[in-house]
């Protein structure tokens, strides 16, 4: 019976990660809340990295056509300097530029920030910050397409992403807010945000592999981790599709309402 309860807990954690990773309400913050509610103590970042990789795979599935196009056209531009492929080559460069700030912050301070600020009170406060940020862009309709981006746009979005190292600050929310404040169209903001998620998530996972291999919980909790992984993959896929629909309808404000309610409840009761 106890083993079954553990499986249910990790199923719920995977579901929480999967649903909250794409939408602007902070997956890391919600994992902290869920662990507090379920009484699950997990030291280190192994579990987060594990389920985050499942979310990464879901993003790859959804954006695989864009990834293939960018790769093919990027190589084509380097080899042949064909002008009709320059837009995609530049898009790749901007993704690289936007990755640098969070890469530096993550390597130097990521673990320290995560461990120091992974408590419910901090998450409650940062959820309120996320609510304000999402509220700011609720009615924005940008004009910039993929081919209109600049180095400045990439740097601003990259800097916005570094804020999401703090639990409770949504990574997708930070990058979407940054993108839309720079005047990007919703579709472009979404694409840039989630294609930017790929190198960041992949890089974080690779850096954490040694620690994951030394994590004693990996053997005893392998089955629960696998259940959480599968759940996170499926939930992320459908949550991202849902976010695309919500942004198209201009309903981002509801995420702001949600973050305010959850943030206040967390501060008061957890």
Automatic annotation (TrEMBL):
EC identifiers of the protein: 3.6.1.27
- The positions making up the signal sequence are none
Q: Where in the cell is it found?
A: Cell membrane
- Please list the GO terms describing molecular function: undecaprenyl-diphosphatase activity
Q: Which reaction does it catalyse?
A: di-trans,octa-cis-undecaprenyl diphosphate + H2O = di-trans,octa-cis-undecaprenyl phosphate + phosphate + H(+)
Is the Membrane keyword given for this protein? yes
Function comment:
Catalyzes the dephosphorylation of undecaprenyl diphosphate (UPP). Confers resistance to bacitracin.
Q: What else is known?
A: Bacitracin is thought to be involved in the inhibition of peptidoglycan synthesis by sequestering undecaprenyl diphosphate, thereby reducing the pool of lipid carrier available.
Q: Which PANTHER family match?
A: UNDECAPRENYL-DIPHOSPHATASE (PTHR30622)
Describe the family membership recorded for this protein in Swiss-Prot or TrEMBL.
Answer: Belongs to the UppP family.
Name under which the protein is recorded: Undecaprenyl-diphosphatase
Q: What is the originating organism of this protein?
A: Gracilibacillus marinus
Classification of source organism: Bacteria, Bacillati, Bacillota, Bacilli, Bacillales
Give the gene that encodes this protein: uppP
